[in-house]
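Researcher: Good morning. I'm working through a list of sequences from a screen, and I'd like to move beyond sequence-only analysis. For each chain I'm collecting a predicted structure so we can compare shapes side by side. This is the next one on the list. No need for commentary yet; just the structure.
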Amino acid sequence: MMEVENRLSERFDGLVDELPDELNERRVKNGVILEESEEEAEAMEGGVEGEEMLKSDGLHHNSGRIIKKAKRPIKATSFSEPSAPGVAPTQGLVNLNRASKNLRRPRNSLGRGLPKKGGAGGKGTWGKLGDEMELPWVDPNDPNYDSDGEEAAEVGKKTIKLNTLVPEMSEEDVRKAVEPLMLEYFENGECEEVLFSLEEMLLNIGSRRWMVPALAIELSMDHKPSHREMTSQLISELYQKVISQRDIGKAYDFLLRQLSDLILDTPDAPTIIGNFMARNIADDCIPPKFLQSYKGHVTEVEAVKALCRADTLLSMKHGLVRLDNVWGVGGGIRPVKYLVKKIVLLLKEYLCSCDIQEATRCLKDLEVPHFHHELVYEAVVMVIESMHEKTDEAMCKLLQALFRSFVITIEQMRAGFQRVYDQMVDISIDVPQAYSVLERWVLRCRQAGIINDDILKKMPSRGRKRFVSEGDGGLIKDSSYW
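Model: Good morning. Structure tokens for this chain:
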């Protein structure tokens, strides 16, 4: 103990007082706290006199106070190391069993019984809080080492980057994948769904992206003008997201080369392709110089016709604005007045020709199945206003053919008759015999199987009061027919 105190005095040489105040009681050297007793500090401060005082009595001070020395374990009292040769083991440690030796409690009886290092040290410990979130360090020299998770691996001075290998689809596979998407789009009209599906398979399509607009235009030729309008909107939506100008140009180049085969199924294929080209130019999907690049390089008659059609649409006055309706105003987008006018014209032409098939075709071309009740309403009004047997018979045959071919549903038929019933007060002002004509024609329709008993019972009837002299007992006829 005296040797330790002498080394401390020689090492610091009076520099102890120059340490900061918070370290006056505990001195730190290289992160290790050097323990000492109060008497050692007094001896260091006292210099030689202190040394002589400690030498004179190692356990008692001159004043009679007991000196407490710092407790430091030595090999003689260590549990884990054998005692030094020639040193007898401390009394009390001889009879300790192995269980007492491996206790986790501190041997100086000063600890609180907590695990060392916060539970992070030694075998069988759970580790510190948050250790489960950190990935363990992987040794590249480990036989089980897997480098798939790393983006790059350095070999010497070169950096190797591993890219995902995606197989590219063939033309037949692209056709099988894209055609169902387009047919479903014609049913629901959701551009976002088609865009999302194509983005998922974009890597597999690869350099065959031009087949997407080509297949869309080819499928729309077999459908109605409203579907072609939807196709034009879809190409504009996919532009710069899935397809580029080059892809659209390659699609038109492919279609122009296949015109001879497309005409067999769609006789007006050149006109349709010319309309699509003009519409895409108006939507800024392809530049106007695209048409000029084909001048003098195309010899097929059908391709020349398609290019001339597109050039004509673009060169007419306000051509870019009019191209928004190049396919007509399709379906429910059309104004109601326009649809009513078309239906009235359809019925008038039918009364002149009595061609049921042509009338059915014109009604289907309007593409407004939700507005078929207007045709029923206009047909009944024409029958009431004409008051002619021939008109009654012709209109009955038309409605019977449309109802049996499921072009007009029973709900649309009921809605059309109900509209006439609600307007009978106003109609009777212009046609005084409207109620009698309506009654006769409704009975004819019931016999033809166009309407059911529910529609027949709702038919209004304008009655008149009868007097006692007429022999009815003074009863008044009900306003209803039934």
